[in-house]
Design a protein that fits this description.
Length: 79
């Protein structure tokens, strides 16, 4: 992926289950729905082992991509 040709912020590529401590790629997780009728429903990633919720992290490579994206867009993104 040529990071210089995209304006999309690179997202986390690693996941870890909050319940069973499974660790893997976000692409290995399943998709579920969370929320309620009042606030609305949204899609979430779920652990492929136990179905629990996951937390996200970035690999070294993805963090490098994100840093390059951030440097290119630092004058555009309001902090």
């Amino acid at each position: 992926m040529d990071i210089a040709k995209t304006n999309s912020e690179p997202l986390a590529d690693l996941a870890q289950c909050m319940d069973c401590d499974w660790k893997g790629l976000v692409t290995e997780t399943s998709i579920g729905e969370d929320g309620d009728w009042e606030s609305g429903y949204y899609l979430v990633h779920l652990c492929p082992r136990c179905g629990g919720g996951v937390e996200y992290d970035m690999s070294t490579e993805r963090l490098t991509e994100w840093s390059e994206w951030d440097n290119r867009n630092s004058d555009v993104v309001e902090r």
